[in-house]
Amino acid sequence: KAATKKGPAIYHIGQAPEFAHIDVSIIETVLRKRERGEKASREEIQQFHEVHVELRKQSDEVAKIIASMLPEKQRGAYAE
Fold this sequence. Notes:
The protein is mainly α. Helices cover 48% and strands 0% of the residues. The protein has helices spanning 25-35, 42-68. The chain is elongated, with a radius of gyration of 20 Å. The relative contact order is 0.12.
């Protein structure tokens, strides 16, 4: 039983990356309209797309940072 009682673990993986703030409220706006069966305007769809692209860029950057901490053979698509 004593082996299962472990103390808290602390992991240090380097400095946290900093990203520009992205206002994601358009995503909620568009999704709520879809739930109600309403159509989003062209402007809303364009804003949704732009936010999606920026979020994808940020998530790719995080994946690259994590991949850089792995052995080279395990980096997959994020190997540089």
